[in-house]
Amino acid sequence: MKMLEQGRPWEDIQKDMQARGASDAKWRDGRTAVYVFNAGEEIAAIQKEAYAAFMSENGLGPLAFPSLAQMEKDVVSMGLGLLHGPDGSTGAMTSGGTDSITMAIKTARDYARSNGRARERANVVLPFSAHLAFDKAAHLMDVEIRRIPVKTDGTYEADVPAMIAACDSDTIMIVGSAPNFPHGIIDPIEALSEAAVEKDLWLHVDACVGGYFAPFARMNGVPVPAFDFELPGVHSMSADLHKYGYAAKGASTVLFRSEALFAHMPFDMNQWSGAPMKTPTLAGTRPGGAISAAWAIMNHLGVDGYKRLQGDVCATRERVEEGVKRLGFEVLGNPMLGLIAFRHRKHHAFAIYGEIYRRGWFTSVTKEPPSLHLMLSPKHADFIDEYLEDLEASVKAVAAAEDEEKLKVDARYS
Hints:
The chain is of the alpha/beta class.
């Protein structure tokens, strides 16, 4: 596409945009269980208005826009309050989970260097189920990633003894997930914390999915195990606001136990022709709308609002568990929050996924083991029965296709 010599009227462009989006995933209809976190029209309206109110402001300039600087401090403070941040704990907002994880690794690396460690090639030890954002960040910084197989006892949890055995003097970080993305399982963070304290290791908890979910699930009576700064070995955490914080994209938080740890994260540079610049995260320009929308949503919902929404999600996940087990599926591990993965005992999950996709559902899959995967939102409570009906039809379609193929094979050799 080449730029037009003469611009087009907005009304014309708007129609064009709507037409282009006609084939996108139908998340507003509850038929998408990945990428989007749908908490309803009221929350969506607040996201848009709060984002638009500061969409031209730049979080890069706290002196120019003290309003954004204070809103970011408020958001970080609220996050630390939920996640048992001790006195002196701190953090910053980032553009998303990958950004938060990248900055956590950078901070841990520089901290290790300042203490005379990681003299060779730094490494990060994590479970095989940890998010691939760690690999992306490590690639940028030439850090080695050591992925350790998860337990083989059906829990899909991190194997703590195996992880610790893989650590050496160049290990700058060990990782646990709360929960991991592939299976929705919370790793044994308490055991990782004990090992981190004993071995003097930096423990990062990737709570991008659960950071703004698990505290409220616990308030609702879900037996969520300790996973945050209440455990002394936890040095840093990543927690996404644009997931179960229901903020506008892209907004996340990267949090640290102390100012002394956080001090290794910012970039501070004055050796050039321009004005000195200090940035807390990877980005230079920081969209003001992402900060203001997160601040607005957190203030609008409050504890009661989040408890209600997360309670709806947990209840929907329980309905999914009951429904898929009735259809012959096995739920992987013990999911407690909004993620769930399940595989069929007789039919291949990817074949079933093809059928459910043809029925208009855009969900996800897990590779190891092959499973169907849902990341549920509050709005799914209105549509989950329809999903289960289509899932049942999909299983029957796969079974019928397998029977037909078997008849063809039998006929060929008869």
